[in-house]
Amino acid sequence: MTVYRLYVFLLDIAPPIWRRVELSSETSLAHLHKVLQAAMGWQDYHLHEFEIGGQRYGVPDTDYDLPGEVVKDSTVKLSKALPSKGASLLYPYDFGDNWTHSVVLEDIALLEPDTKYPRVVDGARACPPEDSGGSYGYADLLDILAKPRHKEHRQMREWAGKNFDPEKFSAKAANLLLKQALPKLRTDQVQ
To answer: How far apart are the first and last CA of the chain?
Structure first.
C-alpha cells in the first residue's frame, strides 16, 4: 500500500486557501470526502460530489440522477481516481455556495513506520464559514470584517464568530478535527 500526498485548494479564492494531505492510496472517494471536510474545516452541512474526466461520483439521488449518471463514491479508490502524479479531480461542496476544490496528486510514497494516516501536513488560511455565499460572498465578508466602521461589521463579526481569523491555519488543529471525524481509521483499512 502506498501513501498519496494531495494538494487541495479552493478555486476562485485569492490569496489561496489550501491544504496538503497524506492518506492511503486505497482510500475510497467517499472516505476522501470525510478527510477533506475535516482538513479544510468544513462541517459537512451540504451535498458534495467528485468530478473526474466528466464523470460524477457521489451518492446518487434516484429522484434527480439518471442511472449511471453519478457513480457511487464508495466504490472508487484513490489509486483508480488519481492513477499517477499530477492527476487531479474536482470536489464541489455546497452546490448553493459552489465551493469547488481542486485535488492534485503531488506525490506517491511508501508508508512511514509509526505514522498515522490520514494526516494534514501543511496548509494556509482559514476555511470560509459555512453558508458565506461562495467566493463572492466570502470576499464581501472579508471586506466588511476589515472595516470596523462598516455598518454591518458587528453583525458579520458575530455571524463569523469572534475568533474567526481568515489568515489563521493550524495543521495541528486540522489533524485534531481529522482524528475526531475518523476515530477508527487505520492505515491498513480500505475506507
So the answer is: 13
